[in-house]
Amino acid sequence: NLVALTLVFVGAVSGYPQPLRAIHLLWVNLIQDSLAALALATERPSEELLFIKPFGKMERLITPVMWRNMAMTTLYQLAILFWFTYAAPQTFNLNDGTLTLDQKQHIPSHHFTLIFNTFVFMQLFNEINARKLDK
Length: 135
Known about the structure:
The chain contains five helices and no strands. The protein is elongated. Helices cover 60% and strands 0% of the residues. The chain is an all-alpha fold. Helix 3 runs antiparallel to helix 5 (110-129).
């Protein structure tokens, strides 16, 4: 997922604690893959699928509309997650998990839980909304 990779990369480059850890990314991947498989398995077959002509070898797999939707979803999710990463601690008065002088390690905070849950819910809503582009 481009959003997760960008968020982790920018967090690492900026010297901020990683907003998403490896276990978070594995959970999101598990949620996305299992729900996508469930959506494909429960989709009812329709008669109109039998009358669609096959696509050619040189046809695009991802159409320009799909590229546009992916780009806009990525930008939207990154904007929300960057806001939660960098501005939410001051807005909601949260411990942002950064080290103070007397600490030796990062303490897990509600801030990172908020980022993870926001990311998961945005992925779930995106998965539900992206099922059918024409309806």
